[in-house]
Description:
Elements: H1 2-21, H2 42-51, H3 61-66, H4 72-80, H5 89-96, H6 106-111, H7 117-125, E1 137-138, E2 153-154, E3 164-166, E4 176-178, H8 179-194, E5 200-203, H9 208-222, H10 224-230, E6 244-248, H11 261-269, E7 275-277, H12 284-287, E8 295-298, H13 303-309, H14 313-321
Parallel strand pairs: 1-2
Antiparallel strand pairs: 3-4, 5-6, 6-8, 7-8
Helix pairs in contact: 7-14, 9-10
The site of zinc ion has 5 residues, from strand 6.
Amino acid sequence: MKRKLFLLLALLLICSACTSSAPAETPEPSPTPTPGEPAKTETDFRVEQLQTIAGFDETRLEDYLQYFDLGPHYVVPLVNQGIVNEENYGRLLDLTHDPYFLLSRASRYLDNPKETVRETVESVNADRDRKPFDEAVENDPSKDLLVQANKYYHFPDGYVPEDMVPIAAQYGIQTSLREPAYEAYIRMYEAARTEGLDFYITSAYRSYDKQVSLYNNYVRNDGVEAADRYSARPGFSDHQTGLTVDILTSSSNFSTFEYTAEAKWLAENAPRFGFIMRYPDGKEDVTGYTYESWHFRYVGDIAEAVTASGLTYDEYYTYFVRGE
Ligand SMILES: [Zn+2]
């Protein structure tokens, strides 16, 4: 009896081994039709998929099927909103393949094409299709350390961060920073010191009023257009977050800092301490600001993920933090 059972088990094992090593058959979704019932067609399966999508509208079925390659989750809302048509179908297909495509911005991508799909999505995700300052929205305080500050988000009037602490003279200019950023900065600085490097904070928190006088000064010297490329308008400055530091060494200035060992070290190591390079080289079209090798923004735990993503914080924020 036991022997019989053993043989049966062995046989079963062999059989399952056979089937698993056999060339994988295409997993046909069609179950064997019950006698008398016709086999389901590809279209039948598509319709079934579409019917599970929120907003599915029977009267639009023909269009869903015509543009089905967009995928059931995209095609239903895109057809419902009247966004997809024969002319833009190919472009939309390409756009949906970008890893950071946002359905909520589909028509903005179509209205603001750049040379490549990635550039189009990147630009719109960073709100670059909007009018800077004029079409800005107010900052969301619940984002805390992740708060956005760029030309499309502004601080409410009179905004001052709550947990500000003064910066000790040994670390640089005696202004202030939010406590978590300051503590992280000290950890970063101590780590750099053990490697024989040295730098200091040349600017950190800047109040609205301070930014008013800075910006007006730049405008007087260079004009509005030039000033907007390298300085934030009051209410739009990353420095008003209280989470930002500009770093220099005693032997460098803003134009030479990028060539120092300290700049190289910071570019590589700052994310370990929660800081990201906010205005990377070659991303002016996305951030709206020229490359700033000295400007680091504290975002806490997500700093390494932001850096590894290769996205600017403008795009990262829209996709991952804002949660559109
Ligand atoms: Zn700065």
